[in-house]
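Good morning,

Attaching, inline, the backbone tokens for the sequence recovery test we're adding to the shared suite. The designed sequence is right after.
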């Protein structure tokens, strides 16, 4: 059966999801979950959540899908142990350290690979199946045919997003929030850089191609494709930041669809809670041009009419859909919004009305124009319907009882429910009924009072032996049986752990630091060769996403897990920054997979690099082999979406240079041959002055993207001079350069 997986940012949302038919819930704790600004759960409320869910046969998965710095590793392990004791069904992780710890220590709690890992192919899925994952959450960019292919070949449960907000960048591969605002998306503190407005600049002519919300994606909605989706193991709804009524609305519609009970009207009701307009997503081949809504980044609502006349102090609205008193509307006027709750609604005669179907009138102070479009952003009555659904029981479980009641004996009841048997025995002795023995109907009457439980009375066996059973005793028996079955259900889940095996220690001989370079063009490559750089990443780069693995010679720079799986037997390799390595255990696991060297994340500062090295030494009696990027325009995001196509610049991207611009700066756009896009930081990471102070790093990488051949040569000479100590004057430029996170810890 396909699992319907719902989000819960708090207990109210969790109950809303369960009462509307979900099969599983994913939620986050106060730390290590990729939604730091959701209410989230502490251990006490999580225990309440697990109890509530498990009694209703709903699973609980906890998101621990952030990167884990070295000084947090022990706290991370403690939290995982606590989650196992509470009895959660699985943990969704990004960091290899968390993944490794769950797989090696816990037998009943599953490790799920988060979409933050960027797994989008068969190879990456097979790698984590081999490593012990019980489920893989695929990237949102994977098309449905490929999802089915991965499922068929890898034979491991797959989870995909089917509804809700989309990241414009591949998840886990967006550094924009952290590098620009010091609030890291990989730490659950994304500032929503993609929801801001930007100006698209043609740098060749210095012309503006327009200012809008060019990176803001529409919301995913795949309910029309439910028959295709039924082949997938778990269908995930986004929304841990959303209110309970949103969760109730979306979960109920997908439940109806999965149960073949959905109507077109119910599908339309998805518009009645938060949406940025909808897209079928890359999952169902949305045109890249239509994946974004550049008009507005927040709740769009749905169109219900237009301003048709201005009558004295009132505006006339000609409606295409009903408008009720207390609905919330937004009116688009000169590219600005007027938002209001309709407290007073008038008819043509100026009389107050509660509802209008065709024409109505409103009084507001703001200036509007004829033709302004009216959108409804909150339907008052529909919201009340959703609120009424928040704590109902979606289904009740049958309770069968066999009652043994004989005079001069105890009351015995054999009860069956939730797949368990519970045997009740009263303390008191029953008496003989002289005139009115307790009947089967009286037993049924008392045992039917189950509305505050998850049960409904189903089958009752009762043989009349002329005993009298006080109603008070029957009620006490009912309560005892319910609690007894609850306890049997909740205590049935095993929480086994296993002892860790002694691991093989891996360490590397110390090397004199040297320079490597990654390049984008043949001219940059030639410049690096002419300057004596021995390790250059150009045609030997295997990026994290969107890969078609081809036979390659020599050492590779691999940015994704699928690449590691595919090439580990044929090519020596270095892992790239895009694996988000920030702790010693992640390094160790990559060395075990064959990595010659590991490139550390852009999101580490100097002291955290030292923490990692020291921890690695303590665990392995030797140092790791590390690479650090010390120069270049950092990749803020890698996306399947193309902003130039959206702005009708398709096919000319290779003849011109483009950038996005906002109040913070200009962000160059790299267009790749397969129409994917990398957005670069406008400022250049420059740690060349710091090279002598960064200890224990084998390779310092210079990353060249938009630099000319002359600039490449200049930077290599500066880096060489700084590395060998022959250049003393500073090369950092306050106006054009940044030190990134080198001296500042990211949030």
């Amino acid at each position: 059966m396909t699992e319907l997986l719902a989000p819960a940012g708090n207990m109210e949302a969790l109950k809303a999801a369960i009462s509307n038919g979900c099969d599983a819930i994913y939620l986050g704790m106060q730390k290590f979950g990729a939604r730091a600004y959701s209410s989230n759960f502490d251990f006490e409320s999580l225990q309440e959540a697990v109890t509530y869910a498990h009694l209703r046969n709903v699973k609980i998965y906890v998101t621990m899908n952030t990167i884990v710095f070295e000084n947090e590793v022990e706290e991370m392990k403690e939290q995982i142990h606590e989650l196992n004791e509470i009895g959660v069904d699985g943990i969704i992780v990004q960091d290899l350290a968390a993944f490794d710890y769950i797989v090696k220590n816990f037998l009943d709690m599953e490790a799920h690979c988060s979409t933050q890992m960027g797994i989008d192919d068969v190879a990456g899925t097979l790698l984590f199946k081999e490593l012990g994952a019980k489920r893989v959450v695929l990237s949102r960019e994977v098309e449905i045919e490929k999802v089915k292919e991965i499922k068929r070949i890898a034979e491991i449960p797959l989870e995909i997003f089917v509804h809700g907000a989309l990241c414009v960048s591949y998840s886990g591969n967006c550094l924009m929030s952290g590098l620009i605002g010091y609030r890291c998306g990989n730490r659950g503190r994304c500032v929503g850089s993609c929801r801001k407005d930007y100006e698209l600049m043609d740098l060749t002519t210095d012309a503006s191609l327009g200012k809008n919300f060019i990176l803001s994606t529409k919301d995913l909605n795949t309910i029309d494709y439910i028959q295709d989706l039924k082949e997938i193991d778990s269908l995930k709804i986004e929304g841990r930041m959303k209110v309970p009524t949103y969760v109730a609305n979306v979960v109920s519609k997908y439940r109806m669809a999965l149960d073949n009970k959905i109507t077109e009207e119910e599908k339309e009701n998805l518009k009645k809670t938060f949406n940025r307009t909808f897209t079928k997503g890359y999952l169902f081949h949305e045109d890249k041009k239509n994946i974004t809504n550049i008009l507005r980044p927040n709740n769009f609502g749905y169109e219900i009419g237009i301003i048709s006349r201005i009558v004295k102090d009132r505006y006339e609205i000609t409606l295409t859909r009903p408008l009720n008193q207390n609905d919330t509307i937004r009116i688009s006027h000169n590219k600005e919004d007027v938002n209001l709750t309709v407290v007073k609604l008038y008819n043509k005669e100026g009389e107050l009305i509660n509802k209008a179907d065709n024409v109505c009138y409103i009084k507001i102070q703001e200036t509007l124009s004829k033709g302004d479009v009216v959108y409804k952003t909150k339907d008052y009555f529909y919201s009340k319907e959703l609120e009424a659904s928040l704590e109902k029981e979606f289904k009740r479980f049958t309770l069968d009882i066999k009652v043994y009641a004989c005079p001069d004996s105890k009351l015995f009841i054999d009860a069956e429910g939730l797949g368990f048997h519970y045997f009740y025995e009263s303390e008191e002795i029953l008496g003989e009924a002289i005139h009115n023995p307790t009947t089967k109907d009286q037993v049924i009457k008392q045992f039917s009072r189950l509305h505050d439980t998850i049960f409904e009375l189903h089958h009752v066996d009762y043989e009349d032996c002329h005993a009298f059973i006080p109603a008070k005793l029957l009620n006490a028996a009912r309560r005892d049986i319910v609690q007894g079955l609850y306890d049997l259900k909740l205590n049935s889940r095993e929480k086994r752990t296993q002892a860790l095996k002694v691991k093989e220690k891996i360490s590397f001989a110390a090397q004199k630091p040297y320079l490597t370079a990654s390049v984008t063009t043949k001219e940059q490559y030639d410049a690096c060769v002419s300057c004596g750089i021995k390790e250059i990443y150009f045609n030997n780069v295997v990026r994290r996403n969107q890969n078609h693995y081809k036979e390659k010679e020599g050492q590779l720079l691999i940015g994704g897990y699928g690449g590691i799986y595919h090439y580990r037997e044929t090519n020596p390799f270095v892992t790239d920054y895009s694996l988000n390595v920030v702790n010693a255990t992640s390094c160790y696991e990559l060395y075990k997979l064959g990595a010659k060297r590991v490139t550390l994340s852009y999101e580490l500062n100097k002291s955290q690099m030292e923490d990692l090295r020291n921890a690695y030494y303590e665990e392995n009696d030797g140092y790791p082999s590390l690479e650090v990027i010390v120069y270049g325009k950092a990749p803020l995001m890698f996306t399947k979406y193309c902003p130039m196509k959206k702005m009708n610049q398709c096919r000319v991207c290779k003849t011109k240079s483009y950038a996005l611009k906002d109040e913070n700066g200009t962000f160059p756009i790299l267009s790749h041959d397969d129409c994917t896009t990398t957005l670069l930081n406008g400022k250049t990471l420059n740690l060349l002055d710091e090279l002598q102070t960064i200890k224990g790093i084998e390779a310092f990488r210079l990353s060249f993207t938009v630099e000319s051949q002359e600039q490449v040569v200049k930077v290599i000479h500066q880096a060489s001079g700084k590395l060998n100590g022959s250049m003393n004057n500073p090369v950092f430029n306050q106006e054009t350069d940044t030190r990134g996170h080198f001296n500042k810890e990211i949030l």
